[in-house]
Amino acid sequence: MPQHIVHPIPPFYDETSKILVLGSFPSVKSRESGFFYGHPQNRFWKVMAALFSEELPKTVPEKAAFLKKHHIAAWDSIFSCDIEGSSDSSITNVVPSDLSEIFRTADIRAVFTNGKKSHEVYARYCLPDTGRPDICLPSTSPANAAWSTERLLKAWSVIKEYL
Fold first, then answer.
1. Model-level pTM?
2. Label partner for 117 (CA 20 to 30 A): which of 21, 70, 75, 81?
């Protein structure tokens, strides 16, 4: 049964952020951990660590330090919604995130959406306000089993062009 949830994790960014990575909405595990991509099967952190030739960040402070070091802002395109578990396909009654404070604070060079749901929400609700088209990347979610970690790494390497 879907439940209405307001995003429990604040956006992560500062004045040095150069790119913005937007997921759709935090998974149950991410909501429990209080930070982005908290499910151990999600490949976001594995891809990021490989992309920058660094050790895999494990704790929330390590993940935050990693994002800051590499000038990556992170949040989600959905601020609140009705959702069942962690399933993007169950999402209804979307309220988009207000990204204006991130854009006012940081010189964001590119917006990357992590998966189709984030892209759809961003294109429909956020793009009219930001005027900044996103680059849709394949989802790092374990539900996107068609993409190996190696294929994800190759696709996600485009972010380095904007840093």
1. 0.96
2. 70
